[in-house]
Amino acid sequence: MAGRSAGPPGEPRRVAYLYLLPAFAVYAAFLLYPIGRAVQLSLYDWDGLSLGRWVGLDNYVAIVADEGLRAAFGHALVLIVFYSGGPLVIGLGLAAILNHAKVRGLGFFRTVVFLPQVVAMVVVAVAWRRVYAPDGTLNTLLGALGLDSLTRGWLGDYTFALPAVGVVGTWFETGLVTVLLLAGMSRIPGELYEAARLDGAGAVREFFAVTLPSVRGEIAVALTLTVIAALRTFDLVYITTKGGPGDSTSVPSYEVYHRAFGLSQVGSAAAIGVTLTVVIFVISFGINRFADRRVS
Amino acid sequence: MNPPLRAIAALAAGVLALAACAPGSSAPPAGTGTSAQPSASAVRTDAAQLGDVTLTVWDQEVRGGQAAQMKQLNDAFQAKYPNIKLNRVSRSFDDLNTTLRLALSGNEPPDVVEANNGRSSMGAFVKAGQLRPLDAYAEAYGWKERYPQSVLRYSSYSPDGKVFGEGNLYGLPQVGEVVGIFYNKAKLGKLGLEPPATWADFGAALDKAKAAGEVPMQLGNLDKWPAIHVFGTVQSRSVPADQISTLAFGRKGGSWNSPENVKAAEELVGWVDKGYFNKGFNGQGYDPAWQAFGKGEGVFLIAGTWLLADLQKALGDDLGFMLPPGATADAPPVATGGTGLPFAITAKSPHPDAAAAYIDFITNADAMKVLTSTGNLPVADTAQQSVPAGPQKDVFTAFGTVTSKDGLVPYLDYATPTFADTLGAALQDLLAKKQTPQEFLATLEKDYKTFAESNG
User: Fold this and answer.
1) Membrane-spanning residues where (chain A) (predicted)?
2) What is the rounded distance in angstroms from the CA atom of residue B173 to the CA atom of residue A160?
3) B259 in helix, strand or coil?
């Protein structure tokens, strides 16, 4: 009965949806439903315990109006520079060298570069907190170089706290980006380089003419991953600065946690979470659109 | 609308429809807990006669001496009342805080829970009708005679959860804590100083320590909250205790913009100017700071009695502890302080009598002795405990003195649900000179006033 009568041969049959159902059920239960619930919560003024009060879009209006929250989103954008920009530049350079020089023990270097990714962020944060402490490694090093005037409590300094957190992000993401780009570069056929060299291109020209365009896809993947990581930053800030000094390192994810569990403003927390999700979605979408516009 | 978009829209609508009941609708109407309050004669205090009962207890006594006392007391309770079975669930402070909220809104919450005193925990639970008022039990067991009023108010709320510090009693703590001044006896001796008897002497001692090239005072303020205790100590030298209580309990009628508060903020900034704190204190963690003090860096440390065990281990008998001195040597003591987390009974517990008997058992006079012997600071009968001379004796004397004279003032961050954050960030700003004392107080005033007005 179900046969192929529904359409021309080769067309998908309706029964296909049945096969999709199990996966969809799991997806809906663990992803779509929670998202829907979060959206719904964001429309309420709710303390997590007593009956919620419908407030419509007030929570979203408050996000835009709240100077502190705008600052938090601003800090997240600064972190993108450190999480994505830094690793991309360093990663491109590092990968180009590793790929080009055909270093002996490439596997070893690849492992070393990738190592930060393997360590849990909480551990990374605790370690860097010690590095940045007033009597920590960084200040000891500066002192040894005779740069005592530069020493400070890095995470407690209003100018340097956010960059200090950002540098941890750079350190963390560089390995991932490098390994991604290295994989991309190893697939570039040698003939392309040969041709470029015959045309009289130097190493720099070669990099911009051959290597860079060839790893466009990998760059997009790297950017997507790192930008999302930057916007979602929570554990790093939670462990190192708790958003301080003052509010100079507050980030949206930390605000979500803080409002939901610290201040019992579950509705507001959900609204920030939803906003953050939308921002992440838009930015990743933009990056991928950009990467898909293949140059010939 | 093209087909895929339409599908997504339909999906979104469906998901929303699934989720479309107001959050929190399963919570009981406010007041169920309060109307059920029995009179003292109606409660049963003979635990052995309560039949076979299982009590589920959620506590956060997981560390060192805390865990030891809890185990010892629970074992004794089980031995004495075999008819009551304890089902103990123990988790760290942070874990308890984040899970308790969900557990209490369920249909079968634990019977006895340790709930943090503040508005966002105990206050919110009272407001939602999830905790049982304990006044009848307090009367039956004589808790109000044994516990000082300045201690009991930390677990008292009005039945609607709005007024903190008075009203019904919702919990009973085991241990006390007070913020005072730890000092390094050996260093004081080297500087030719005695523990300061007045606040002016304290200033002079800091001066002398600085001149001698010591770190006068350790502070690690990276975690935002530690300076709250330092500021509270300075503030309670110049601001009258009743004003601090009004501000710290978030009640109407106080103001941060007072000359006394300005004086306190200016004095604290003065300490920064004079270099009394270690370098880079805003970037130093709380733990590394007191650990440095334990290693002999720093003459003084303003901190709470909870550091006693660790510091004593590090410094031994070189460690001393004192209440912050007043303007004169015989001024009545005032210090920031409070209690450990109070034990409360949930409104839905089917065995409130057994739960109250358990709470009484872990807080009675014998329990206080167990607390002492396991290195904790008992909140009641503190002066009656016998401890060897040394830092522990200092701490017991300090707490006994300040509670017997009702000199405890509440933690400033109790004031409003957001105040810990507001004050912590503002203090970092103040200490880093990003805000003047006036701006600092205006920030606090705004948070306090906004809350006090809306709270009614």
Assistant:
1) 16-36, 76-96, 108-128, 160-183, 219-240, 260-287
2) 42
3) helix
Same fold, B39-175+340-380 and B177-338+409-455: yes
Confidence of residue A270 (pLDDT cuts 50, 70, 90): very high
Q: Which fold has domain B177-338+409-455?
A: D-Maltodextrin-Binding Protein; domain 2 (3.40.190)
Domain residue extents for chain A: 15-54, 67-292
DSSP state of B324: P
Whether the pLDDT of residue B5 is over 70: the answer is no
* pTM of the model as a whole: 0.84
Confidence (pLDDT) at A184: 92
Edge-to-edge, what's the strand order for the sheet holding B53-59? Answer: B84-90, B53-59, B112-114, B343-345
Task: Please state whether beta strands B53-59 and B84-90 pair in parallel, antiparallel, or not at all (unpaired).
Answer: parallel
Cα angle, residue B333 at apex, residues B332 and B338 outer, rounded to 5°: 140
pLDDT band at B379 (very low <50, low <70, confident <90, very high): very high
| pLDDT at residue B345 in the model | 96
Q: In CATH, what number does B39-175+340-380 get?
A: 3.40.190.10
* A168-195 tens-digit pLDDT: 999 999 999 999 999 999 888 888 888 8
Query: How do residues B339-374 score in pLDDT, each as one tens digit?
Result: 989 999 999 999 999 999 999 999 999 999 999 998
Q: Cβ distance B371 to B378 under 8 Å?
A: yes
How confident is residue B29, by pLDDT bands cut at 50, 70 and 90? very low
d(C-alpha B110, C-alpha B108), whole Å? 7
- How do the domains of chain B map onto residue ranges? 39-175+340-380, 177-338+409-455
Measured in angstroms, the CA of A42 and the nearest CA of chain B are apart by 10
Determine the residue among A47, A50, A157 to mutate to test chain B binding: the one whose Cβ has the most chain B Cβ atoms within 10 Å.
A50
Element (H, E) at A292: helix A266-292
Nearest to A32 among B15, B30, B120 (CB): B15
Task: Check CB contact under 8 Å for B221 and A51.
Answer: no
**CATH C-level class of A67-292:** mainly alpha
Q: In the 8-state DSSP scheme, what is residue B47?
A: G
